[in-house]
């Protein structure tokens, strides 16, 4: 069956709003290392990895063996009404790595569910439905997480279970404060935070939720230290800080294991998902005991933290720690960033190169006025695909190329990707 035939079947039974990449979508049927093969036999270097999910790569023996071992027991699922050894072992490791004192962990099936759980904990703990979030943010497709998403393209409903106010600071490239030095930028954003609390809330806000590097928003981030400065204000009001680490966790940023550590602050909770399972569905929350234990009613997660996903996740963490993939993300990320900046020197269409480690973005603009250029972005994404490179797309205006390859990326593969991107930009001339 051709991709075109499969696409016709997709359109007949799947929702219209379920977006696909490319004018002629492809099916991925095989993978090894950092490369995948589509349903018509073409091979690609994968620089988006299931939206940052296949963090280690494809066909990793240690992870596959851990899953096969669990399957061989005949037990694929028991639910959280029973003890689950791998779940407990994984929770112990995440609690240790979190830096949160005496941390506790709750597992879910996805980042959306993780953020929904964190909202539940925070609003219950503070007995308030008031929430602060960042402009240009994305936290999931659930009812509560859509409500705290500050990106119109992903806000499917204006209805909300929470009262949300949005802050300045996370998307610097188009911020009204963009031309300020870092210290002045941080001060302006802190002043905005104080103004928002004083004028648009009743004061007893439950939490602020932030992405250290905004994912769907185009890998944008503020200067390091902004969220530590925010935390000083939050502490005056007893407002909790939640770090959404769904895309920034597990060493992907290179310099730190968790994205929020760049701001030298320990949050009250962190949410996680994506790369932890290397393709297996898992998410969760790691938080202080006071926050995690704030629920006064029974709760559980039928499939969250099941034996299969936790076996895969435990093997994934062990692999990335044993192979020091955080250091590799820093090295290969620096190489890729240098290559992108070299392209930017030649092509004014590449308006901004940003991100950390193997979480990098290229914002595409119209030369002269730096207006967002979604059409050229789509063209460049297609041209890269034609040459054997898969990259993501995002940003508030759909004009950002997102690159987040598996953290096992090699130096030759990075060089190959840079050359493909350069060739793709050459088609603009």
From TrEMBL:
It holds the Pfam family Aminotran_3. CDD domains: OAT_like. InterPro entries: Aminotrans_3, PyrdxlP-dep_Trfase, PyrdxlP-dep_Trfase_major, PyrdxlP-dep_Trfase_small. GO terms for molecular function: transaminase activity. It comes from the Bacteria. It is an enzyme of class 2 (transferase). Its cofactor is pyridoxal 5'-phosphate. The keyword Transferase applies. Its EC number is 2.6.1.44. Keywords: Aminotransferase, Pyridoxal phosphate, Transferase. Homotetramer. Belongs to the class-III pyridoxal-phosphate-dependent aminotransferase family. This is alanine--glyoxylate transaminase. It comes from Kribbella lupini.
């Amino acid at each position: 069956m051709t991709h075109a035939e499969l696409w016709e079947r997709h359109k007949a039974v799947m929702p219209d709003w379920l977006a696909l990449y490319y004018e002629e979508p492809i099916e991925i049927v095989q993978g090894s290392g950092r490369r995948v093969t589509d349903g018509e036999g073409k091979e690609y270097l994968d620089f988006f990895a299931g939206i940052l999910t296949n963090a280690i790569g494809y066909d990793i023996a240690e992870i596959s063996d851990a899953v096969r071992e669990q399957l061989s027991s005949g037990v694929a699922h028991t639910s959280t009404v029973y003890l689950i050894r791998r779940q407990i072992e994984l929770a112990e490791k995440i609690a240790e790595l979190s830096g949160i004192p005496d941390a506790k962990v709750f597992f879910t099936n996805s980042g959306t569910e993780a953020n929904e759980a964190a909202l539940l904990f925070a609003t219950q703990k503070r007995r308030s439905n008031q929430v602060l979030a960042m402009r240009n943010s994305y936290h999931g497709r659930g009812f509560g997480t859509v409500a705290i998403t500050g990106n119109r393209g992903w806000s499917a409903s204006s209805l909300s279970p929470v009262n949300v106010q949005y802050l300045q600071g996370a998307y610097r490239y188009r911020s009204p404060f963009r031309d300020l030095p870092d210290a002045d930028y941080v001060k302006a954003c802190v002043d905005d935070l104080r103004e928002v609390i004083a004028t648009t809330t009743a004061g007893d806000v439950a939490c602020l939720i932030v992405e250290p590097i905004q994912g769907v928003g185009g890998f944008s981030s503020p200067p390091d230290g902004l969220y530590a400065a925010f935390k000083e204000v939050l502490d005056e009001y007893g407002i909790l800080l939640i770090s959404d680490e769904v895309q920034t966790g597990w060493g992907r940023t290179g310099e730190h294991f968790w994205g929020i550590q760049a701001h030298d602050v320990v949050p009250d909770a962190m949410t996680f998902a994506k790369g932890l399972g290397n393709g297996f569905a898992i998410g969760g929350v790691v938080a202080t005991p006071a926050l995690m234990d704030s629920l006064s009613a029974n709760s559980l997660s039928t499939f969250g933290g099941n034996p299969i996903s936790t076996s895969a996740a435990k093997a994934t963490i062990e692999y990335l720690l044993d192979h020091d993939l955080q250091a590799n993300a820093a090295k290969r990320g620096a190489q890729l960033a240098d290559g992108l900046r070299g392209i930017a020197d030649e092509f004014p269409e590449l308006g901004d190169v940003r991100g950390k480690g193997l979480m990098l973005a290229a914002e595409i603009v119209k030369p002269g006025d730096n207006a967002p250029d979604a059409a050229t972005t789509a063209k460049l994404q297609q041209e890269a695909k034609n040459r054997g490179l898969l990259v993501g797309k995002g940003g508030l205006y759909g004009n950002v190329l997102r690159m987040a390859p598996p953290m096992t990326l090699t130096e030759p593969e990075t060089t190959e990707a840079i050359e493909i991107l350069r060739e793709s930009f050459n088609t603009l001339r």
